[in-house]
Amino acid sequence: MKRKTVTAIAFTLILAGGWGPGAELPDKRPVATGGPSLAEQYAGPAARIISSALAGNDAYPKMLELCDDIGHRLSGSPELEQAIDWAVATMKADGQENTHRELVMVPKWVRGRESATVVAPTRRPLAMLGLGMSVGTPPEGITAPVVCVRDEQEFEALGDAVKGKIVLFNNPMPPYDLEEGAHYGTTVRFRGKGPRIAGARGALACLVRAVTAHSLRSPHTGATDYDDAKVKIPAAAISTEDAEMISRLLARGKQVKVRLNMEARSEGMVPSANAIGELRGREKPDEVVVIGGHIDSWDVGQGAMDDGGGCVIAMEAINVLRKLDMIPRRTIRVVLFTNEENGLNGGRQYAEDHAAELANHVAAIESDSGIFAPKGFSLHCRDEHRQAIAVEQLRSIAKLLSPLGADRVREGYSGADVGQMRDSDAVLMGFLVEGSKYFNYHHSHADTLDKIDREELSQCVATMAVMAYVLADMPQRVGETSPRTVERPTRSSQ
Fold first, then answer.
1. Dihedral of CA 75/166/140/217: which sign?
2. Which of 198, 212, 220, 213 is nearest to 127 (CA)?
3. Looking at the chain, which residues constitute the CATH 3.40.630.10 domain(s)?
4. Helix, strand or coil for residue 130?
């Protein structure tokens, strides 16, 4: 199906009775009566939000500043701290309340110079990126024969043949599937555990096939996890093309030797921060709906898809609402988490710092799947009864997003950062987008601003703004069947 343009969506909303950006406000807001559905109650406000967001917003200028002026933002880097300062200053300039930094200690891992080269049976450089948190090689590097496996079964079958070798895990990511998605959760496992299990068997180093189904000889990095390994070996990702080349050479009976040089090192824990800004609620400001993404990125590309866009759509969602003077009952809090990529310390610290108020966290939405056409939301709640209620409520709210094609609701994973609030009763949600191209760019030099479509960025802003607004304004908390004390809404939040 051809993607709807901003003009077509806006025209659909006008035909449906929605407001244009300059339309006269009605005198009444929706009031819960026990009869109308959430979709019926909020049809007018949702149409107005969508029309305004699509007519014009500041998301792309924010992306220009974050990506082109600052760039990639690894934990412990000056660029990350610059980005956090930028986010706080930008939200303050937008008029958001309670804008501030919240201290988080994060690991500082430095990549340094690195290279990988096939030295036999021929000589050629490999496209590589060291895995995050990897140890380095000796100054002279590591040169050793390569053994190649596709899965755990083949690795176990090698037995002692791993000793003194470089192990290549050549496990391909399947093509994107409309029903099952990108298969990231299963394919990424060797990036996480490969160096640990290879080192335990006596391997000298580890190579992992880039976690992508589409490559133009582009390596993709990401964190590895040594856990409590007694032996830590250097680890790097190589392109899918190079992984296949090595596999073919070995299949033909040729011995392949690789020299790996990595200056990677860890420099301990350093201070960083989560960036916070709020649209304070008019009736119940202590009840909170969190929206956000992670402000850090890997040290390649610009961190545009992962996760600059997720941060910006949250920042701009409350900016759209503030410009419309649509102040919901509850507070919408933007949280830009630090250190998601190689530690999750931002998410953990937020849950710890706000433990006393987690009971008042109504919902938390994380956007960390790139910026493509919005499709809807996933959700999870530790209380199965509340989750069942929330599913039905979100299905009603999602009808408001059908002009954007963002009306999907599914149960399941929410997000790594908001997942740190799993012990609360908050409904945890993930922002869903069309995902067929995301892993083409993920954790690679190709994660740059030019990959983001401006119309889709605006559609994501509109989708996030509508969902956050309704969740923060609906008389009852999401996951509850009965409203608490509700006063007739005022014109100011329309």
1. negative
2. 220
3. 6-107+269-493
4. strand
* Closest-CA residue to 466 (of 102, 5, 104, 13): 13
- Catalytic residue (one of 287, 316, 340, 366): 340
DSSP assignment letter at 65: I
Asked if 195 contacts 224 with a C-beta cutoff of 8 angstroms, the reply is yes
Q: Do the beta carbons of residue 492 and residue 325 sit within 8 Å? A: yes
Q: Answer yes or no: are the C-beta atoms of 237 and 170 closer than 8 Å.
A: no
Q: What is the Cα–Cα distance from 485 to 328, expressed in whole angstroms? A: 15
3 state DSSP class of 51: helix
What CATH topology corresponds to 6-107+269-493?
Answer: Aminopeptidase (3.40.630)
- Whether 340 is catalytic is yes
Q: At what angle do helices 454-473 and 43-55 cross, to 10 degrees?
A: 150
CB 369 within 8 A of CB 432: yes
Kindly report the CATH number that applies to the domain delimited by 112-263. 3.50.30.30
- Going by C-alpha positions, the residue among 332, 145, 160 that lies closest to residue 255 is 145
- The residues of the chain that CATH labels 3.50.30.30 are 112-263
| pLDDT per residue as tens, the chain (494 positions) | 344 554 455 434 433 444 333 333 333 344 444 579 999 999 999 999 999 999 999 999 999 999 999 999 999 999 999 999 999 999 999 999 999 999 999 999 999 999 999 999 999 999 999 999 999 999 999 999 999 999 999 999 999 999 999 999 999 999 999 888 999 989 999 999 999 999 999 999 999 999 999 999 999 999 999 999 999 999 999 999 999 999 999 999 999 999 999 999 999 999 999 999 999 999 999 999 999 999 999 999 999 999 999 999 999 999 999 999 999 999 999 999 999 999 999 999 999 999 999 999 999 999 999 999 999 999 999 999 999 999 999 999 999 999 999 999 999 999 999 999 999 999 999 999 999 999 999 999 999 999 999 999 999 999 999 999 999 999 999 999 887 554 444 444 44
CA distance 73 to 79: 5
Residue 157, classed as helix, strand or coil, is helix
